[in-house]
Amino acid sequence: MSKPNVRTLLAFLALAVASLLPACNDNDNGGGGTFDPAAFVGTWSGTWTNTTFSSTGAVSVVITQAGSDLGFSVDLDGNVFGGANPAAENFTASFDTSRATLASTTSAVYGDVTATLNANGSITINGTNINGQVASFTLTGDFDATQMTCNVAITFDTNATAAATGTLTKQ
Fold first, then answer.
1. 16, 56, 65, 111: least surrounded by Cβ within 10 Å?
2. 9 in helix, strand or coil?
3. pLDDT per position as a tens digit, 9-68
4. Residue 44 forms beta bridges with which residues?
5. How far are the Cα atoms of 33, 45, 65 from residue 27, in angstroms, in the given order?
6. Which CATH number goes with the domain that contains 124?
7. For residue 125, with 0-12 CB atoms within 10 Å meaning exposed, 13-18 middle and 19 or more buried, which class applies?
8. Cα(8)–Cα(81) distance, integer angstroms
9. In angstroms, rounded to a whole number, what is the distance separating the alpha carbons of residues 39 and 76?
């Protein structure tokens, strides 16, 4: 497989961006709570590591709020999907008091992406129909008002797999 680590990185970036959108309040006990999206507005940065292929790169996510929507610009650095460093992409998620949801959105880099961020601090992001050698990815992780950590499982068109991790911190 040539440069499958890039696909893993791309999957992580899409997931990381979506996961930064909502926040849960400090009173959340893991059983629910409410989102405080204003706590996440700003710039988040960190790194990703493909633990299968030992590659790494920087991640930057800028989050804005407009009414009940959260906008995020995701910029993943490195040899993403075996190609050149892709341009930043923009996504919009809607939120209510219990969660944020990114409805199925088609991305030139990440494929068809969906995401759910729950008030308890958990996140799940899925991507399918990705251009190139990656068939799909699933990102799972945890977040709060200052940090997000995640694990990404990537499946290639050949059914081979790879794994990645990432951490982002609010600046």
1. 65
2. helix
3. 444 444 444 444 434 334 343 345 787 787 778 999 999 888 888 888 899 989 899 998
4. 61, 170
5. 7, 25, 22
6. 2.40.128.20
7. buried
8. 7
9. 22
Q: Provide the token pair at 7.
A: 């696909």
Tell me the residue length of the chain.
171
Query: Which residue bears the tokens 């440069």?
Result: 3
Q: How many whole angstroms separate alpha carbon 44 and alpha carbon 17? A: 9
Q: Phi, psi (5° rounding) for residue 12?
A: -60, -45
Tens digit of each residue's pLDDT (9 = 90 or more) over 80-122 = 655 577 889 999 999 988 888 899 999 988 899 999 888 888 8
Q: Decide: 35 and 115 in contact? Cβ < 8 Å.
A: no
Is 97 strand, coil or helix?
A: coil
Domain ranges, residue 107:
4-170
Residue 133 has phi, psi (to 5 degrees) of: -90, -5
